């Protein structure tokens, strides 16, 4: 029976974790938890040891992203989904325009639509497997889309919408599965925000945002109820971007964070920078992704889901399988052999594999994965 397929041990990847988030955590990050057991874990996040840890994360990210003058790193609890609510409360003044082309790029738009103090957002919708950027729209003060749509494996360009800066609008980019894996010019954004459970190899529950001076000023004005259209609103302290910035400047978070998450992230940021920073990380991800796309293009039973080569993600790779190969059965067999988290996004509902190729994943393991998939397919 197909579900009894045993892949030869010498064919298996050394590490079988290919999740699109949570993603592979390196052994060195776990060792860092042991190293911090007495000085960091179980201590106050407002005391020097943990604040030094946060300061190291900020410094490392500033170097990794080569921050323009005036840009700042802020962080807080709740993950990137919390930052959607923060943006609705503190960054969108009146109305936002969204590019939506998958589950996650659409969720921020839904939050804006539900905010009673904002006008209905303007939605520019693309089909899954493609991307759609928002267009210049009258009265809009924030343009929003995802750098990488985790659900479909689509990467979108990051640049200011022509005319938006003259309009006084902000550019807010969801970078959750892109940051650390895809190249970006931060100067083209006002908020480039993400959670650390993807390329930064840590746990979720934390949001990190690279903020422009304009974004920081916008939040301060909105929260101070300065005379801006639609600015008069209640901003809960937990959703106050101004509070987050003020605390981040002190190398701390507004509320108690998971110190373990911070430890693992700090270790990952140092590892990335020590190896060559963004250029190294993005080249490594591109190598792994190219291996998968080339394999799928040459396969008789697989093909890349994203048809536009320029839109194919180098962070999360989606591959459609022929109907003769049941993806769920393939995924189950791979898991039985220690190769895990290769399932497609459930709501997309395709006969598909989805493979995370973040920097922690060894390119040699990606090559081994393709051979294992072929081995199983021949026996299904």
Automatic annotation (TrEMBL):
One of its GO terms (biological process) is pyridoxine biosynthetic process. Residues 1-20 are annotated as: Disordered. Pathway: Amino-acid biosynthesis; L-serine biosynthesis; L-serine from 3-phospho-D-glycerate: step 2/3. Its EC number is 2.6.1.52. It catalyses: 4-(phosphooxy)-L-threonine + 2-oxoglutarate = (R)-3-hydroxy-2-oxo-4-phosphooxybutanoate + L-glutamate; O-phospho-L-serine + 2-oxoglutarate = 3-phosphooxypyruvate + L-glutamate. Catalyzes the reversible conversion of 3-phosphohydroxypyruvate to phosphoserine and of 3-hydroxy-2-oxo-4-phosphonooxybutanoate to phosphohydroxythreonine. Belongs to the class-V pyridoxal-phosphate-dependent aminotransferase family. SerC subfamily. This is phosphoserine transaminase. The lineage of its organism: Bacteria, Bacillati, Actinomycetota, Actinomycetes, Bifidobacteriales.
């Amino acid at each position: 029976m197909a579900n009894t397929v045993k892949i030869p041990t010498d064919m298996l990847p050394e590490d079988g974790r290919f999740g699109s988030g949570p993603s592979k955590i390196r052994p060195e990050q776990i060792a860092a938890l042991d190293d911090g057991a007495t000085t960091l874990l179980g201590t106050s996040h407002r005391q020097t040891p943990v604040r030094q840890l946060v300061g190291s994360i900020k410094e490392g990210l500033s170097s990794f992203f080569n921050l323009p003058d005036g840009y700042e790193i802020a962080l807080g609890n709740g993950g990137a989904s919390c930052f959607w609510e923060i943006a609705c409360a503190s960054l969108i003044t009146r109305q936002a325009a969204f590019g939506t082309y998958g589950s996650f790029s659409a969720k921020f738009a839904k939050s804006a639509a539900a905010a009673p103090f904002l006008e209905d957002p303007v939605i520019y919708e693309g089909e899954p497997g493609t991307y759609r950027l928002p267009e210049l729209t009258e009265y809009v003060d924030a343009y929003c889309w995802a750098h990488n749509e985790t659900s479909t494996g689509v990467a979108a360009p990051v640049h200011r919408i022509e005319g938006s800066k003259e309009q006084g609008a902000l550019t807010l980019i969801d970078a959750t599965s892109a940051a650390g894996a895809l190249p970006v010019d931060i100067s083209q954004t006002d908020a480039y925000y993400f959670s650390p459970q993807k390329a930064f190899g840590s746990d979720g529950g934390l949001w990190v945002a690279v903020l422009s001076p304009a974004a920081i000023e916008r939040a301060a004005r909105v929260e101070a109820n300065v005379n801006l259209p639609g600015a008069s609103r209640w901003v809960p302290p937990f959703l106050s971007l101004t509070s987050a910035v003020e605390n981040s400047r002190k190398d701390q978070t507004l509320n108690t964070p998971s110190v373990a998450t911070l430890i693992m992230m700090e270790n990952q940021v140092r590892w990335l920078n020590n190896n060559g920073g963004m250029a190294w990380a993005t080249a490594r991800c591109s190598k792994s992704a190219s291996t998968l796309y080339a394999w799928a293009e040459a396969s008789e039973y697989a093909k890349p889901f994203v048809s536009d080569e320029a839109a194919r993600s180098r962070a999360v790779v989606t591959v459609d399988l022929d109907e003769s190969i049941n993806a769920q059965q393939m995924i189950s067999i791979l898991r039985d052999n220690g190769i895990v988290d290769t399932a497609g996004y459930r709501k997309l509902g395709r006969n598909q594999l989805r493979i995370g190729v973040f920097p922690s994943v060894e390119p040699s393991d990606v090559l081994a994965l393709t051979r294992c998939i072929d081995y199983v397919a021949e026996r299904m």
